[in-house]
Give the backbone structure.
Amino acid sequence: MKLQNIIKSRYGGIVIFSMIFLALSFLVRSILLITDFSNVDFGITHFLQIYLYGLFYDLVTISYFIIPFVLYLLIMPDQLYRSKIHRWISYPFFIFTIGILVFSGIGEWFFWEEFSVRYNFIAVDYLVYTHEVISNIKQSYPMPIIILGMLTLSAGIFALVKKYFDRSLDSKSRFIHRLGISTVLLLLPVLAFFTIDKTTAEVKDNTYSNELAHNGIYQIFSAFRNNELDYKTFYQSIDDKEAFTRLRKLIMTPNSKFLSDDVFDVSRKIDYPGEEKHYNVIMITVESLSGSFFTEFGNTQHITPNLDSLVKQSLFFTNFFASGTRTVRGMEALNLSLPPTPGYSIVKRPNNENMFTLGNILKEKGYVNNFIYAGNGYFDNMNYFFGNNGYDIIDHSNFKDDEISFENAWGVCDEDLLTKVLQVSDSIYKQGKAFHHFIMTTSNHRPYTYPEGKIDIPSHSGRAGAVKYTDYAIAKFLRDAKKHAWFNNTIFVIVADHCASSAGKTSLPVKKYHIPLIIYAPQIIKPAENTTLASQIDFAPTILGLLNMSYTSKFFGKDILLSPPNRAVIGTYQKIGFLHNNQLTVQVPTKQIEAFTVNGLEQEPAKTNREELLDAITYYQTASYLFHHKKYQFKE
């Protein structure tokens, strides 16, 4: 059947819609390619892969998208379908459908600008937490202009295809004929659902190219489907007993002793001789504080002048890595000392109560623990996780109006947040108790707005200003803290939740996980630089070591100062990596393995090392096992 005859049929509207979909997808893909052209490998074969794989995923996406339209066309009687009323109802509905595609394309450009990837888990969160996200978008972009442009473009596209659309509305059809066509069209998405996922067609050698080859709308559906990945189904594995036998060797330290001969039990007694030090611990977890912002690591913008100065007065860890690319991943690793399990962070999963956290350990030691957040802690399930794992909650709802000098979509500015920390600390100190605060900042986040007149970069001018403002706020906080009675007995920690960007040519670019860890306590800890390779899962054991606390542990991490881990675990929600001996081993959820040689923060493809792979499997397989079998609880 000729295309012209198909367009004249009842299903002509679907054909027209599909052609618009493909054209807009081609346009978006091309714009994103031009945007990051320098990061894409050159070559005709490479570009053909991007566009042919892209066409494949576009067609798969269309098959899902048209399901309601196919059902509608199947059941709509001819008499009503060809009526004037139906025609005038169909026009705005078709324009609205085109508008969805245009809106998605515009959104993808902004999303790519921020994250250098197609829609993913973050976009799913944006659909869930609408208040913060919509406020953020309003404050970050000229939305009236964007919406007007979107509506104009959608109406213009419809005007171009209207005469063809009208022909499809005039067509006659028999139900039995529609049933046959609809059955075929409905079988296509069913077949795709069971046989195709985001790894079916991949550009293997370049992550940017692979992202370009995908379709953003498809990626959102994929993220919904894969919010949790069963480890053994998607990744290479070994026998569980072998994995735990290996794990016990990997996490053993000179001051630890396992409490059971059961290989599946990782509980062990950690002993530090001498008196426990009940120092206060104030941990400032800074939004998106990449190591690359620091002068120490080669930055020439001088946007962290106060932190650059502070590192010389602190215990500074220069070879420290984030475990993931989201705030909740950082929280998970810093608190649970557990490698990132594939899918959603444990912070956001069900059955995450009473887990083996730093908070629960310190609470048992008599500490008052607080999770202090600038925004609304229901976002990303943070309040629930911390509230059920040893912490009291202080978020935006606990700030009085006169305690807020400035706020944006994500919460109060860092100065107001840290002023609140001083108040809370004073209150607990008066009770004669030790305290631990897990503080989460927000100012270094789009829309990058903050109080004017604090630094020499105007508010809302970009990331550099937000970083420098956060640097200013932390320095001001430490100066103010020196005036309080509890200062000399307090350990201050400054650490990032993750880097500002995680995109790179490789699936897990090591340099995009490199973050600072600063531990400052002038009356307690001597300044030093520590170059040990470590990651966020090693923080909790290290801080407990500084407190000289003996405790029962299930932590995967090690005290960096006592038993250098010399390895790091990093990952996305699907790809999980193990960095050790200058080799990065990456597990992909198709039971495939990628390997890289790492020199400094640069990496090149390499052959897989069997022992490194077994250690990587061990860390992630056992972490997944313990969580799903409820064996990582504080009190079982």
